[in-house]
C-alpha cells in the first residue's frame, strides 16, 4: 500500500527536510505541499535541492486542502498547528513538527508559549527511556504524533538513561548547547543574517526562558517516573556559525554511592541495539560534522570525579534527528514499517 501525504509549511527548513526524506520512502506518495505567503509558487523555487519534487506547486494551507490524505505533516511555527489539527479528524495519521501537542501541562504551555493549549500527542522520540521501557511502545499504532523540539530531544536523550537508572541527580542539571541557525526557521530575522552570525557566537534565551525547558523536564520525568518539579535544569543555547547541528554538553551530579561502572552501564544498557542513538567508546566524543544529514545521535560520556559530575556530549543534525528524521522514524513505527526506512545513520563529509 502507498500512503498519500500532504506537507504543510513546505517552503520552510523543517518542511523541506521532511520532503527530502519522504522522497526516498518507497511507501509514500507526496501528493500535496502547502504554504502561506508562498502559496501559488513552485516548490522548487523555495526548495531548489528537491529536484525530484519539481512538479509540485505550493497550495494554500487550509484544512480542506490538507484533508483527504492518509498522512499530514504540519511544519508550522509554534502555536499555529492547533487550528488545523482540530479540523483534521478524518486524517488517519497527523504528525506535528511544531510545539502545539508536545506538552502535557497547560501551566507549562501558558508560561512558555501562551495561546490556546491543545491535547498532548504521542511524543516522537522512540529511543527515549520511559519507565521500564521506551517511548517507542507509545508510537506503535499511534494516529497523532508530536515530533520533538530539536534541543529538547537532544538533551533528553543525553540524560534520560542516567535519570532512569538513578545514577545522576536530576535536581542540578546544566546544559549548554551550540546550535545552528536553521533551528530558528527560515523567516528573515536580522540576528540570523550571515553578517550577524559569521565569526561570532551568541547566547540566546538565557536564564531559564527557552521554550524547550518544560519539554526536557517532562521527558526526564517520564524516564524516572518522578514529577517534573524534581527536574531542575539550567539551559543555555548558543548560536554558532554552522547552518545545521547541535552539540549539547550536559552535566549532572553523580548520585551517592554510584560506581563508574554503574554510570557507564546505564547509558550502554539504555541504547544497546539502537540504530540511531549510539554511545561512543570511552574517551571519544562526537562532532556535529559526524551527523550532518543523518538521523543519528552520537553520545560521548565522561565521569568527572573531581567535580563529582557526569558530562554527556551529544551531537545531532537538528533538522534530521532533531525534527524531520524523528517525525519520519515515528511514522514508520506507527505504520509498522521498518524503523529505518528512508533514514540513514551515515552523515555527509566533509
Structural class: alpha/beta
Number of helices in the DSSP assignment? 11
> What general form does the structure show?
globular
| Radius of gyration, taken over Cα atoms and rounded to an integer in Å | 19 Å
Widest sheet: strand ordering: 3-2-1-4-5-9-6
Helix share, percent: 25-40%
Write up what this structure looks like.
The protein is of the alpha/beta class and 350 residues long. 27% of the residues lie in helices and 22% in strands. It is built from 11 helices and 16 strands. It has helices at 13-22, 43-46, 63-66, 82-85, 106-112, 136-139, 150-165, 194-197, 213-224, 260-271, 320-335; strands at 3-8, 28-35, 58-60, 71-74, 93-96, 122-123, 129-130, 133-134, 144-146, 173-179, 202-203, 233-239, 246-253, 277-279, 297-304, 309-316. It has a 7-stranded parallel beta sheet with strand order 3-2-1-4-5-9-6, covered by helices on one side. Strands 11-12-10-13-16-15-14 form a 7-stranded mixed beta sheet. Strands 7-8 form a two-stranded antiparallel ribbon. The longest helix has 16 residues, at 150-165. It is globular, with a radius of gyration of 19 Å.
Summary keywords:
seven-stranded parallel β-sheet
Task: Describe the structure in brief.
This protein has helices spanning 13-22, 43-46, 63-66, 82-85, 106-112, 136-139, 150-165, 194-197, 213-224, 260-271, 320-335, and strands at 3-8, 28-35, 58-60, 71-74, 93-96, 122-123, 129-130, 133-134, 144-146, 173-179, 202-203, 233-239, 246-253, 277-279, 297-304, 309-316. It is an alpha/beta fold. The mean pLDDT is 96.
Amino acid at each position: 500500500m502507498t500512503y498519500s501525504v500532504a506537507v504543510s509549511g513546505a517552503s520552510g527548513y523543517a518542511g523541506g527536510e521532511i520532503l527530502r526524506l519522504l522522497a526516498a520512502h518507497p511507501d509514500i506518495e507526496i501528493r500535496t505541499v502547502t504554504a502561506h505567503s508562498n502559496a501559488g509558487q513552485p516548490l522548487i523555487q523555495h526548495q531548489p535541492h528537491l529536484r525530484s519534487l519539481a512538479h509540485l506547486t505550493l497550495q494554500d494551507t487550509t484544512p480542506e486542502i490538507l484533508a483527504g490524505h492518509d498522512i499530514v505533516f504540519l511544519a508550522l511555527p509554534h502555536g499555529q498547528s492547533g487550528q488545523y489539527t482540530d479540523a483534521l479528524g478524518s486524517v488517519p495519521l497527523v504528525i506535528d513538527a511544531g510545539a502545539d501537542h508536545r506538552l502535557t501541562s497547560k501551566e507549562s504551555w501558558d508560561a512558555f508559549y501562551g495561546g490556546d493549549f491543545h491535547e498532548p500527542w504521542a511524543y516522537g522520540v522512540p529511543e527515549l527511556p520511559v519507565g521500564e521501557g521506551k517511548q517507542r511502545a507509545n508510537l506503535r499504532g499511534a494516529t497523532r504524533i508530536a515530533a520533538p523540539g530539536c534541543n529538547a530531544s537532544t538533551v533528553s536523550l543525553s540524560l534520560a538513561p542516567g535519570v532512569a537508572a538513578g545514577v545522576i541527580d536530576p535536581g542540578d542539571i546544566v546544559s549548554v548547547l551550540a546550535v545552528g541557525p536553521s533551528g530558528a526557521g527560515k523567516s528573515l530575522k536580522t540576528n540570523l543574517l550571515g553578517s550577524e552570525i559569521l565569526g561570532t557566537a551568541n547566547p540566546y534565551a538565557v536564564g531559564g526562558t527557552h521554550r524547550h525547558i518544560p519539554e526536557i523536564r517532562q521527558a526526564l520525568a517520564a524516564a524516572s517516573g518522578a514529577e517534573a518539579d524534581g527536574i531542575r535544569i539550567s539551559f543555555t543555547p548558543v548560536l554558532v556559525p554552522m547552518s545545521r547541528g547541535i552539540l549539547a554538553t550536559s552535566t549532572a551530579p553523580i548520585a551517592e554511592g554510584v560506581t563508574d561502572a554503574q554510570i557507564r552501564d546505564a547509558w550502554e544498557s539504555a541504547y544497546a541495539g539502537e540504530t540511531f542513538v549510539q554511545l561512543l567508546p570511552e574517551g571519544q566524543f562526537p562532532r556535529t560534522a559526524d551527523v550532518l544529514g543523518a538521523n543519528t545521535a552520537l553520545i560521548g560520556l565522561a565521569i568527572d570525579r573531581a567535580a563529582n559530575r557526569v558530562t554527556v556530549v551529544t551531537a545531532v543534525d537538528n533538522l534530521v534527528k532533531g525534527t524531520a528524521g524523528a517525525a519520519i522514524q515515528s511514522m514508520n513505527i506507527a505504520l509498522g514499517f521498518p524503523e529505518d526506512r528512508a533514514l540513514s545513520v551515515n552523515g555527509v563529509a566533509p
